Amino acid sequence: MSELVELYAEYGDCLDEGDLERWVDLFTEDASYRLTSRENHDLGLPLALVRCEGRAGLRDRAMAIGRTAVFRPRRMRHLIGAPRVVAGADDDTIASRATFAVFETIEGEETRVFLTGRSFDRVVREGGRLRFRERVCVFDASLVPGSIVYPL
Amino acid sequence: MSELVELYAEYGDCLDEGDLERWVDLFTEDASYRLTSRENHDLGLPLALVRCEGRAGLRDRAMAIGRTAVFRPRRMRHLIGAPRVVAGADDDTIASRATFAVFETIEGEETRVFLTGRSFDRVVREGGRLRFRERVCVFDASLVPGSIVYPL
Amino acid sequence: MSELVELYAEYGDCLDEGDLERWVDLFTEDASYRLTSRENHDLGLPLALVRCEGRAGLRDRAMAIGRTAVFRPRRMRHLIGAPRVVAGADDDTIASRATFAVFETIEGEETRVFLTGRSFDRVVREGGRLRFRERVCVFDASLVPGSIVYPL
Lengths: 152, 152, 152
Prior knowledge:
The structure is a homotrimer. Chain A has helices at about 5-15, 20-25, 40, 55-65; strands spanning about 25-35, 50-55, 75-80, 85, 95-105, 110-125, 130-140. Chain A is an alpha+beta fold. The first copy, chain A, has one domain (about 1-140): Nuclear Transport Factor 2, Chain: A (Roll), CATH 3.10.450.50. In chain A, strands 1, 2, 3, 4, 5, 6 and 7 form a 7-stranded mixed beta sheet that branches. The first copy, chain A, starts with a helix and ends in a 13-residue tail after the last strand. Chains in contact: A-B, A-C, B-C.
């Protein structure tokens, strides 16, 4: 399996297993992360539901999630399509895109679709492995179900 | 990533992004496309919900969709499993199959499963890239939800 | 496509097409199969909803399913993420994990999410091809919907 496919698979695993420290480690030190709706993205609006700058920003987000008291825990499950390498990336950066579906299982309920969408990513080799320098997750719905915003 | 995997990923992208001109271009000039239910397929019935012959037929279908006035727009999202190359294809043609799940997001609603199924495809190299010469999409449900039939 | 990816894709196909004989053949003679909830798995509980030892055990399970009279047939559809090879496997065994989503279509109804989860697998080369020596399927929900337990 290619290293790029492996990066995406590991990324989904980290979020699904709640291993947010390892999730942060999949980004470069200066990475930027953005989560936005397709509507905002298509209109070119700068609005984002989540925006993190650098690993410090990602770590803050991870800690905020860890501190949130939750009445009924929910489990997420990512399914990620084959990443497509987009032409036009320079030598050091891979510009890639991948389709995702995220499913949610709230304790005692049946599993359901949480969100689907597509990510627009820039990946670089840093510290001996591929990491995200930029990740923009664009979900198809207008709203994220539920009140706590997990990263995708 | 292999060229075949890339073809399927691009195919899903074209439909999800509504880029139907690019979608037509992923077929050969003499391609045939069919969309049918699993029930019909298993019974060997020639019935198909959609049938297009050649790029001209595909283009007609794409234009028909573009002209349809829609009250509430819906967005589709394809997730496509690893394509399997089936033994028995001749030298020039790749016979492959892939599982798919298509999700639908109607404006203002939550994302839900639209259809799942499997495609039976014949892929050839033409004009410097892989293209579908035949694509038969077999969905698991008896009916397609909604009134407009998008290709899968 | 790598042989490991192909194994997973074929595995899903066998179950989706109801070809349970071919499904059994994807395991080694001494294979063990277990289906359990994430809750049990995370707590380290030995409880399993399904447990099969050896191909004989898998064949028994397949036959039990074949004999079950069903009022309204349901069709399953597996979507399997890229398998991740986990470090630490010895020379002969591949330890891999893969995310899955299984969809269900009951006759006359719309397709819905059945279960999502992750499998923890040990794969070996036997008889000229890769086969599962161990497969532990861990689903995210607490319960499996419906009354008949199909393997995942």
